[in-house]
């Protein structure tokens, strides 16, 4: 058996543990609870400023589809659509606002002033939007893209924690 299958990382503290461990020895996260992770709960917690309830992990929960995030990133990534979908709102707002600004400026301004403005003030934000888009597309393709999740307990609250 390969060494990669014997070791996993805790999504909360990034501590490497054995794959058969029930809970993280460092932060005490019970790994079985990841089955009950919810992106919808994480989005509510982010909006309500309860960030201590939110974890970032590359395991997409059952209420998110990785393929949909990939399609949104490929065709609307410059607008941050995939970030809105998963609940990474600050990154999504940055991409959306700067992309919208670029589009408006391209429609309104004359070409010589567009070139001047782009060279002096808009080059770095444009490069960041493109970087976020391309980098997120690669991360989604290789299953390394981090999505926010919140852990909720099952109805009967019976999880093996020993």
Question: How would you describe what is shown here?
Answer:
With 162 residues, the chain is mostly helical. The protein has one domain (38-151). 50% of the residues lie in helices and 10% in strands. It has helices spanning 3-6, 39-47, 66-76, 81-86, 89-108, 111-141, and strands spanning 7-9, 16-18, 37-38, 54-57, 147-151. Strands 3-5-4 form a 3-stranded antiparallel β-sheet. A hairpin with a 6-residue loop joins β1 and β2 (16-18). The chain is elongated and about 65 Å long. It starts with a helix and ends in an 11-residue tail after the last strand. Residues 156-161 have low confidence and may be disordered.
Mean pLDDT: 84
- What is the count of structural domains? 1
Number of beta strands: 5
Q: Give the distance, in angstroms, between the N- and C-terminal Cα atoms.
A: 26 Å
Sheet-strand content, in percent, reads 5-15%
Note the run of SSEs as H and E.
Answer: HEEEHEHHHHE
> In terms of per-residue confidence, which ranges show pLDDT below 50 for 5 or more consecutive residues?
156-161
Our count of helices gives 6
- The radius of gyration is 20 Å
3D shape: elongated
Helix content: 40-55%
Given the helix and strand composition, which structural class is it? mainly alpha
Main sheet: strands, sense, barrel: 3 strands, antiparallel
Strand arrangement, largest sheet?
A: 3-5-4
């Amino acid at each position: 058996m390969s060494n990669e299958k014997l070791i996993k990382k805790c999504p909360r503290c990034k501590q490497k543990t054995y794959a058969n461990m029930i809970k993280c020895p460092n932060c005490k996260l019970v790994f079985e609870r990841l089955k009950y992770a919810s992106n919808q709960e994480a989005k509510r917690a982010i909006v309500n400023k309860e960030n201590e309830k939110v974890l970032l992990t590359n395991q997409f929960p059952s209420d998110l589809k990785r393929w949909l995030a990939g399609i949104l990133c490929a065709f609307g990534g410059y607008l941050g659509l995939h970030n809105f979908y998963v609940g990474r709102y600050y990154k999504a707002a940055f991409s959306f606002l700067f992309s919208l600004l670029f589009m408006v400026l391209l429609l309104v301004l004359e070409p010589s002033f567009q070139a001047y403005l782009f060279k002096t003030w808009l080059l770095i934000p444009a490069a960041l939007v493109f970087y976020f888009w391309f980098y997120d597309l690669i991360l989604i393709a290789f299953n390394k893209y981090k999505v926010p999740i919140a852990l909720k307990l099952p109805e009967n609250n019976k999880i093996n924690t020993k």
